[in-house]
Amino acid sequence: MIGARNLTSHTYDKEMSDQIIKSITEKYYEEFRKLLNRFEELRILDE
């Protein structure tokens, strides 16, 4: 993920940008949803 982030900072290539977007939607998005759900569970338990 860090590698993709670094590439987005310096990428002006449409094909590379499309690959990064695909990675975000296919890999990272679901992991961030899981993390958000876990944070919400912890917040509820803390209340």
What does this structure look like?
This protein has helices at 2-10, 14-46. The protein has a domain at 21-47. 0% of the residues are buried. It contains two helices and no strands. The model has no long low-confidence stretch (mean pLDDT 83). It is elongated and about 45 Å long. By secondary structure, the protein is mostly helical.
Any descriptors?
47 residues
- What structural category do the secondary elements indicate? mainly alpha
- What percentage of amino acids are in beta strands? under 5%
**Mean of residue pLDDT values:** 83
Q: Based on Cα principal axes, name the global outline.
A: elongated
Question: Termini, distance in Å?
Answer: 32 Å
User: Could you spell the SSE succession in H and E letters?
Assistant: HH
Low-confidence stretches: none
What count of helical segments does DSSP give?
2
Number of strands: 0
**Biggest sheet layout:** none
Please give the share of residues in helix.
over 70%
Radius of gyration: 15 Å
Describe the structure concisely:
The protein is mainly alpha-helical and 47 residues long. Helix content is 89%, strand content 0%.
Secondary-structure map:
Layout: H1 2-10, H2 14-46
Helix pairs in contact: 1-2
